[in-house]
Amino acid sequence: MFFSDARTQREYNESHIITARRIEQSPTGEYLVPDSEELGCVRYCVVYDCRTSSLDCCDYEEEEKGKVAREDAEEGTAVQYARSLQQFTRHPVLVLKGGYKRFSACYPFLRTQKILWMPQELDNFQPYPVEILPAKLYMGNFDQACDQQIQKDLKIKAQVNISEQFAEGSKYLHVSVPDSLEANLFSSFATICHFIGELFLIWYSVQIPNTSLLSFCLQRAWDYVLKCKMNVRPHRAFVKQLSDWETQIYGTTITDISEPNY
């Protein structure tokens, strides 16, 4: 991921998103493009300014989901620079909806004054869980579930642990299942759904992801979670159990899991 900060030097120095680089301008006011070869290898190139008010036309789902929308509105500082970067990237350049002001209000723990990062520092940086529902539902792993700083930053109040590993927690549901194709989660779906509260973190073993799919019909949940984590791939046995759960809830099978997308 490549972050570009389109605010003033003073605003950037006060604080910015971790690893973000400030956009430089030439004496004539033209935007200077960073290493084009580096941009060509970046999957997500994100530009932000202070408020990015030019993206007010985004639909409700984009607004609820999480702050990133494609640049398709009237020109603003971030949008202008995104257009200039587009010719150097393989993928669409994204603009942060609401700009730095909104992002820093939602994720104050991801802002910094640090400008230079050593490779070892970047390698040691611990990622946060995937945000499924803003400030409500997260999907992470065992290490993240045990990280007290992450729990504090995200204000996590409850956890659902779906693995054979165990960790301490005040409000905690442990569904012990092996990391295998034979794992039976179907019998625990009702218990998990009942346990779900205001805010919780789901963490899982390597091959048993996506319990967050429980809240919707399978098709809708699949499409939604893919927007949050594009590389998520639950195994076929788990998808079959989700399909059976969908049938039990709705009285009929809605999603055709024979499609190759599943």
TrEMBL record:
<dbReference type="InterPro" id="IPR029021">
    <property type="entry name" value="Prot-tyrosine_phosphatase-like"/>
</dbReference>
<dbReference type="InterPro" id="IPR053272">
    <property type="entry name" value="STY_interacting-like"/>
</dbReference>
<dbReference type="InterPro" id="IPR036873">
    <property type="entry name" value="Rhodanese-like_dom_sf"/>
</dbReference>
<protein>
    <recommendedName>
        <fullName>Serine/threonine/tyrosine-interacting-like protein 1</fullName>
    </recommendedName>
</protein>
<dbReference type="GO" id="GO:0004864">
    <property type="term" value="F:protein phosphatase inhibitor activity"/>
</dbReference>
<dbReference type="GO" id="GO:0001691">
    <property type="term" value="F:pseudophosphatase activity"/>
</dbReference>
<dbReference type="GO" id="GO:0019903">
    <property type="term" value="F:protein phosphatase binding"/>
</dbReference>
<dbReference type="GO" id="GO:0062030">
    <property type="term" value="P:negative regulation of stress granule assembly"/>
</dbReference>
<dbReference type="GO" id="GO:2001244">
    <property type="term" value="P:positive regulation of intrinsic apoptotic signaling pathway"/>
</dbReference>
<dbReference type="GO" id="GO:0005739">
    <property type="term" value="C:mitochondrion"/>
</dbReference>
